[in-house]
Amino acid sequence: MLFHARMRVHLPHDLDQDAADRLKEQERQRAQELQRDGRWRHLWRVAGEYANISVFDVDSPDELHRLISQLPLFPYMDVEVTPLARHPSAISDDAVSDEPGS
Ligand SMILES: O=C(O)CC1=CCC(=O)O1
User: Fold this and answer.
1) CATH at residue 43
2) In what pathway does it function (predicted)?
3) In angstroms, what is the span from residue 44 Cα to ligand 1's centroid?
């Protein structure tokens, strides 16, 4: 099942810089693990915001909830999730090409 997620990060202003750097590094490592195992399909920065748009491919809403709620930055994120269904006009499973300009 595919899910679109918008995650906005709000780190507290009084959070120690080293603690913030550690959390970001842990988040990066977990995000890359999940990209490598195919569950975190897309990860895009929202231009001009400390936020990302992501697409997850997981077995269930429960799995997505577990995965997102265990992210190191989860305590500091607002997350909006939208379940995705196949569009009838889509010509492939992804309906997305990796070719620039297509
Ligand atoms: O920077 C973000 O948008 C939060 C985040 C998700 C994966 C990652 O490495 O950072």
Assistant:
1) 3.30.70.1060
2) Aromatic compound metabolism; beta-ketoadipate pathway; 5-oxo-4,5-dihydro-2-furylacetate from catechol: step 3/3
3) 9
